[in-house]
């Protein structure tokens, strides 16, 4: 009765009774040695500042241009609702 039968335990996965594997190295890090959020708040503040500073000109310059166009259009529209503006508009439309 030396053969493998239905009730013979072969071992857990990787330990099936065969010779041990050679040249396999396993590395691990203790959960007590890791600090996943070390410096997260500090880096979040200064990284956000740095990224905002680097992109500021790409937002500010077009914003100033758009604001100037809007302000000129608003002022011209207000001018057209004055007496002098209506007279100028009638002359421009009559021509």
TrEMBL record:
<dbReference type="GO" id="GO:0045275">
    <property type="term" value="C:respiratory chain complex III"/>
</dbReference>
<keyword id="KW-0813">Transport</keyword>
<keyword id="KW-1133">Transmembrane helix</keyword>
<protein>
    <recommendedName>
        <fullName>Cytochrome b-c1 complex subunit 8</fullName>
    </recommendedName>
</protein>
<keyword id="KW-0496">Mitochondrion</keyword>
<dbReference type="InterPro" id="IPR036642">
    <property type="entry name" value="Cyt_bc1_su8_sf"/>
</dbReference>
<dbReference type="GO" id="GO:0006122">
    <property type="term" value="P:mitochondrial electron transport, ubiquinol to cytochrome c"/>
</dbReference>
<comment type="subunit">
    <text>Component of the ubiquinol-cytochrome c oxidoreductase (cytochrome b-c1 complex, complex III, CIII), a multisubunit enzyme composed of 3 respiratory subunits cytochrome b, cytochrome c1 and Rieske protein, 2 core protein subunits, and additional low-molecular weight protein subunits. The complex exists as an obligatory dimer and forms supercomplexes (SCs) in the inner mitochondrial membrane with cytochrome c oxidase (complex IV, CIV).</text>
</comment>
<dbReference type="GO" id="GO:0005743">
    <property type="term" value="C:mitochondrial inner membrane"/>
</dbReference>
<feature type="transmembrane region" description="Helical">
    <location>
        <begin position="56"/>
        <end position="73"/>
    </location>
</feature>
<keyword id="KW-0249">Electron transport</keyword>
<comment type="similarity">
    <text>Belongs to the UQCRQ/QCR8 family.</text>
</comment>
<comment type="function">
    <text>Component of the ubiquinol-cytochrome c oxidoreductase, a multisubunit transmembrane complex that is part of the mitochondrial electron transport chain which drives oxidative phosphorylation. The complex plays an important role in the uptake of multiple carbon sources present in different host niches.</text>
</comment>
<keyword id="KW-0472">Membrane</keyword>
<keyword id="KW-0812">Transmembrane</keyword>
<keyword id="KW-0679">Respiratory chain</keyword>
<keyword id="KW-0999">Mitochondrion inner membrane</keyword>
<dbReference type="InterPro" id="IPR004205">
    <property type="entry name" value="Cyt_bc1_su8"/>
</dbReference>
<dbReference type="Pfam" id="PF02939">
    <property type="entry name" value="UcrQ"/>
</dbReference>
